[in-house]
Amino acid sequence: MPKVYNWQIGRDMEYRYKEAHPKRQLVAVFNTNRCIACQTCTMACKSTWTFNQGQEHMWWNNVETKPYGGYPHNWDVKTLKMMDEATDVDQKWDGSKTSEEAPYGVFDGKTIFELAPWGRYALGYEPTPEEWQVPNIYEDTPNAEKGVQGRGFDGGNLLEHQSWFFYLARICNHCTYPACVAACPRQAPYKREEDGIVLIDQERCWGYRMCVQACPYKKAMYRPDTRTSEKCIACFPRVEGKDPHSEGVPMESRCMAVCIGKIRMQGLVDIADNGDWENNPKHPLYQLVKVEQVALPLYPQFGTQPNIYYIPPRWVPRPYLRQMFGPGVDQAIERYTNPSRNLLAILQLFRSAEKMFFRYEVIEGPKIRDIVVNGEKRAIFDDEVVGYDEKDREIARLRVHEALLVRDATRSNSI
C-alpha cells in the first residue's frame, strides 16, 4: 500500500490511497469535563436525520459512559484487542520524540491499515445485532476498586476518586484517512474536497458492509431495508451555509448547536499541501489543538487521523486516558487545569453562536482577583473575547468574569 504521513502518530504509515487532502477540513473539539449526558445532541441528530424505517438503531451521534459503555457495545475494547492479537510488536508510544511534525510523539506500534488481513485494507469486525441494541449500555456505571466485577460502589468506604466514570460524546470523526473509504470495493464512501466531510454515495453502495467492519469507531451503520450503509453527514447543508438562518456562512451541525453543557466547538480549518493545518493562530480551533494542545484525538493509534478532538476529563486515572487519547494527556490536563489567559478566554466561546468561528480576539481587561491552583497563585483578569464568522462579522462577545446576580433577601423564594 502507498505511504502517507500521519502527524497524529508522528510517522509515515500504510494506506490504500495516495496522499490527498481537502482544501479545508471540518474539525470539532469536545470538552468532556462539561458533558452531562443529557443526550440533547443525540436526539437532535435522531429527529433530524434518522427517523425513518430501518434507522431505528442508527445513532449517528451518541453519548456513552466510559469505561463500560459504548455503541456498539465494547467497540473500542474489541478493536484494541484485535490489534494486540494481530501483531507481535508492542503497541506503544514514544512520547520523547515530540516535534512540530509529531506533537504527540511517535506511535511505534501498527495501525489498523498496517494490520489488515490479506485481501483487506483495514483490520476490523462487524458488530452483532445484540451489540447495536442500546446506545448507552452501562449508563452511569462507575469503575471502582471494589464491587461486583469492579462495577459499582463500595458503599462502606467511598473514598475520593475511588469510583469514576465520564461521558464521551461521539459522532463520525470525518477522518483524514477514513477506514470506510479504504475498505469499500465499490468506492461508495468518499471525502469531500471542499470541507473534508466523509459521505457515502447511496447509488454506489451495494451493502457489502465493508465500511461497517473497517471503521474502528463504528460510525458507518447498515440499514437493512435499503441494504445500504449510512453515517453522520455532518449536517453538510449547514456547513455549506445553506441553512435559512446561516446568512450564507457555515453553521455548526445540529448536535453542536443544541449542546446544553456547552461542551462543543466546530469549525473549518485550512489544510496545507502536506496535509497539516495551515498556520492560523487567530483561529480558536487552531489554538486549542495546535498551540495550547489541550484537545486530543480519540484513539490516534488506529491510524485514521480523526478530526474530532477531546479535552480529557481531569478526574480519570491517567493510564486509562493515555490509551484512549495518546501520550499528550498529562500536558493537556495540566494546561486545562491551569489555563493561560488566552485559553481561558477561548473556552468562553464554546456554544456561544450557531455560526462557525473563523477568527477570535481577546481584549485584555483589569485584574479582578488572585486564586490558588495546585498550590500556585495566579491572577484572573476580566478579559473580553470576540468571535467572528467567515465574513469577519462579529457573532459573539463574552467576558471571562460572568456577572453574578443575587436575589434580594425579601424575594429569596419565587413561590
Task: Give a structural overview.
This protein has 2 domains: 3-340, Alpha-Beta Plaits, CATH 3.30.70; 343-399, no CATH class. Helix content is 17%, strand content 21%. By secondary structure, the protein is an alpha+beta fold. The strands form 8 sheets. The chain has a 4-stranded mixed sheet. A 3-stranded antiparallel sheet has the order 15-18-19, with helices on one face. The protein has a two-stranded antiparallel ribbon with strand order 1-2.
> How many domains make up the 3D coordinates?
2
Order of helices and strands: EEEHEHEEEHEEHEEHHEHEEHHHEEEEE
Tell me, rounded to a whole number, the average pLDDT. Answer: 93
The shape is globular
What percent of residues adopt helix (DSSP H or I)? 10-25%
Unreliable residue runs: 146-159
Number of helices: 10
Beta-strand content bin: 15-25%
Distance between the termini: 69 Å
Structural class: alpha+beta
Largest sheet: 4 strands, mixed
Number of strands: 19
Q: Nearest-angstrom radius of gyration?
A: 22 Å
Q: Which architecture of the largest domain per CATH? A: 2-Layer Sandwich
